[in-house]
Amino acid sequence: MTINQINQLEPREFEKYFAGVLEHSPHYAKSAAQQRPFTDFDDLLKAFESAVLKDDPSKQLELIRAHPDLAGKAAIAGELTVESAGEQKSAGLDRLTPEEFAEFTRVNQAYRAKFSMPYIVCVRENTKATILEGSVTRLEHDLETEIQIALGEIVKIAKYRLLDLVVPEDPLKTNISN
User: Fold this and answer.
1) 3-state DSSP assignment of residue 96
2) What is the pTM assigned to this prediction?
């Protein structure tokens, strides 16, 4: 859909169309819909970003915890959302060697043990190697730092998911490098 078409959607149609932008959290689409009309893709992205970053901290933590582990049990069982499955596949997380799988399992467990939430990274901007490298640094952070990083990664994930759903009216005017 184009931005003009998105602006014309009924609220429930908007919510349904954008329900998967934030993992198991379609209520953010409802909040974003209230910020219409959008002038361009960046406005749409800012609406979702604002909905997340201005939310109550307990709701932000719920959003973070709604994400699956990278290459975790849900992936093996085929229980990921369509969006998450495609993203993990794009980084090769569906084709791990036994050694890589063991390392992702170790990282996931260590991260959850320390922070009580999954390790979140925008896999579309990473490789298996950079995801694992980043975990070394991130495991050294405190909880508040990690919550802020996780929210930033979630906004990046939302950007790519929105790009999958929106057709720019003038691709030359759409800034997707944020």
Assistant:
1) coil
2) 0.88
